[in-house]
Amino acid sequence: MARAQLRLLLMQIRENPTTRDEEWRSFARFCGLQPEQIEILNLFDTPEFGPHVLDGFDAMLVGGSSEASVLEPERYPFIHPAMALLRHCIAVRLPVFCSCFGHQLAVKALGGVVIRDEGEFEMGTLPISLTAAARQDPLYQDMPDGFAAVSVHRERATAVPPGCTLLAYTEPCTHSFKVDAAPFWTTQFHPEVDKPVLIQRLTQFASHYTDGAEHLHAVLDSAVDTPWSNALLRRFVDRVLLHG
Which residues does the UniProt record annotate as the domain Glutamine amidotransferase (predicted)? Predict the structure, then answer.
């Protein structure tokens, strides 16, 4: 299949109109696709859905969220249908790439545990460590250990679910795993976010993640570029969807 023929579904968990558009375009940019090749299923707009939403798509992407929590399914009724859809993708071996909220959603969907940090949490650009298993993974096999990535999250998983292989981590949490039986990858960090978008997002959601202007500026001043992290989505397209 040619790159221009690919059609992907983005499961989006965003309410803010600006962030909705930015996330969609960022995924397209780093996948090396045109935005029109990625269709959006926004869970705030469509909280009830079934496997039919995947019809005609070559893969699914799952984005992040600053407005929802996988630990509150009673507040966000789309959590259970979203987890069911991830399990369906695994069953039919539809390629999936989950980022941040998507990583946490996959952990819960596959029987793992997600916890909430009430105090300090990862925020900014961080060095990400690779496991030995990453050297055999098509997305990570030629990535440098300690590559920089954008990571902003108040919830985390300290272990991967059963039937999955840990690929990347920091001391506090898991950062990437692959489902052993399917072309299904996750990242707690944001491969669809680069330094300029991080600055934009943290400034926009400063009250949610930072303790005032001084804290915000300290995080932004320490941010670095993240080219290796941002390359992962294109690797997913090139090495899995086009040559898998």
Answer: 79-194
Distant-in-sequence, close-in-space partners of 9: CB < 8 Å, separation ≥ 6: 38, 39, 40, 41, 53, 54, 57, 59, 60, 61
Check: CB of residue 109 under 8 Å from CB of residue 208: no
| Max CA distance (Å), the chain | 50
The domain ranges of the chain are 3-119+155-194+229-241
Q: Is 75 exposed, middle or buried (0-12, 13-18, 19+ CB in 10 A)?
A: exposed
**Sites in the chain below the pLDDT cut of 70:** 119, 201-222, 244
The DSSP H or E segment spanning 202 is helix 195-204
Summarised one tens digit per residue, pLDDT across range 87-106 is 999 999 999 999 999 999 99
Q: What is the tens place of the pLDDT at every residue in 62-90?
A: 999 888 999 999 999 999 999 999 999 99
Shortest CA distance to 173 belongs to which of 190, 157, 194?
157
Q: What is the CATH number of domain 3-119+155-194+229-241?
A: 3.40.50.880
If you count them, how many residues does the chain have? 244
| DSSP state, residue 43 | T
